[in-house]
Amino acid sequence: MFVFSFDVPNSLIVALIFTVAFKIYYEATKGVCMSSKRLDGKTIIVTGSNTGIGKATALDLASRGGRIILACRNLKKALVAKDKIVEKSRNPNVLVKELDLTSFTSIRRFAADVQKTEPKLHILIHNAGCGDIEQKTTEDGLEHQMQTNYFGPFLLTNLLLGLMIETGEKEKENVRIVNVGSDGHFSVGDLNLDDLNFSYERSAKTIWSPVQNNLWLPIKIYGTSKLCVILSSCELARKLEILGKPVTVNSLHPGGVYTEFSRFSKILSFLKSPAEGAQTSIYLAVADEISNVSGQYFRDCKIAQPSELARDKEFAKKLWEVSERLVRLEPKEKFF
Ligand SMILES: NC(=O)c1ccc[n+]([C@@H]2O[C@H](COP(=O)([O-])OP(=O)(O)OC[C@H]3O[C@@H](n4cnc5c(N)ncnc54)[C@H](OP(=O)(O)O)[C@@H]3O)[C@@H](O)[C@H]2O)c1
């Protein structure tokens, strides 16, 4: 008779085998940005750059001579990161500006500051993101993950688009918007454009079962926020292409990366390092061979296919309209 026993030594061996197998897989498939492009004279914003993938991205771009704006919500942490980046890159042209994506007031203040102080903006990297376990609502009345990962960056892109287009037109070369998405979007099978704020599902709570108690809802919301990132990247790329504007927009999956994001589990240390996880963001920011590529999804420095839903162009158009309403984009802030 077969008796299933879950003794500790056996489970450790299984965990070890999985860890080694994953490590081999990551090593074999990870993409590396091979470009040695310099960024002297270019201005670059990296959001959420005080730690993790964002900090590694900012360090690499600073090493290429760019003027790097660390857009972070925690100034104390950001200043510590800035000192490290300046020291390692030997580039003093790194500055910190406050940006909290859960506040439209903060986003508008940040954008106004950039418009006032920066004559040009060449690269905007939307890296900041969160994965919540509990459900929270922002001061703007939106679901916390949806605003941090999608609505906030959507508003910021719209506010900085004019400056980026002007920069591209003056310099006669494409400037770039890079949106950090996630393969987590594959977990989402449908998107209710009438309730992007998940008001209905968030209110439908019971205490009786994990499913009814919506324990999986934060994961669904994370996937949805990243699906929206990919859809709106495609829609923005389409709009800019129709008008012939010199801005490319692409999104990416960084891979499974060991950062504060995965801080809850030490066993995840087989994942990519932040520097490895930053490679596709860096590639999209600098690589010459993709200077005209727009509206694509990347993984490991290569074009990849996002989910079927993420490729639905009609859906992307509708999402854009709904998002404009939800972030309360004012007529004078609209480019399109
Ligand atoms: N790690 C992975 O395996 C993985 C996989 C797929 C996609 N991603 C995506 O990659 C991006 C970077 O993630 P990471 O792994 O580097 O995570 P991380 O180490 O947790 O860093 C996230 C960054 O975003 C910032 N941030 C969070 N909420 C913010 C807000 N309201 N306003 C401004 N900044 C905010 C954080 O600031 P604080 O330090 O102040 O919290 C931090 O700087 C995220 O968009 C994430 O969704 C990560």
Set out the fold topology.
Blueprint: H1 8-29, E1 43-47, H2 52-63, E2 67-72, H3 75-89, E3 94-98, H4 104-117, E4 123-126, H5 144-171, E5 175-180, H6 199-203, H7 217-243, E6 247-253, H8 274-277, H9 279-286, E7 297-299, E8 302-304, H10 313-326
Helix pairs in contact: 2-3, 4-5, 5-7, 7-10
Bound molecules: NADP nicotinamide-adenine-dinucleotide phosphate (NAP).
Describe this structure in words.
With 336 residues, this protein is α/β, with parallel strands linked by helices. The chain has a single domain (14-330), classed as Rossmann fold. Helix content is 44%, strand content 12%. It is built from ten helices and eight strands. Strands 3-2-1-4-5-6-7-8 form an eight-stranded mixed β-sheet, with helices on both faces. β2, α3 and β3 (94-98) form a beta-alpha-beta unit. The protein is globular and about 65 Å long. It starts with 7 loop residues before the first helix and ends in a 10-residue tail after the last helix. Residues 1-6 and 206-210 have low confidence and may be disordered. NADP nicotinamide-adenine-dinucleotide phosphate is lined by residues 47-48, 50-54, 72-74, 77, 99-102, 127-130, 148, 180, 182, 253-254, 256-257, 259-262. Keywords: Oxidoreductase. This is Dehydrogenase/reductase SDR family member 12. One of its GO terms (molecular function) is oxidoreductase activity. InterPro entries: NAD(P)-bd_dom_sf, SDR_fam. Pfam families: adh_short.
CATH architecture: 3-Layer(aba) Sandwich
H/E element sequence = HEHEHEHEHEHHEHHEEH
User: Which word captures the global form?
Assistant: globular
- Global Rg: 20 Å
- At the first level of CATH, the class is Alpha Beta
| Number of structurally distinct domains | 1
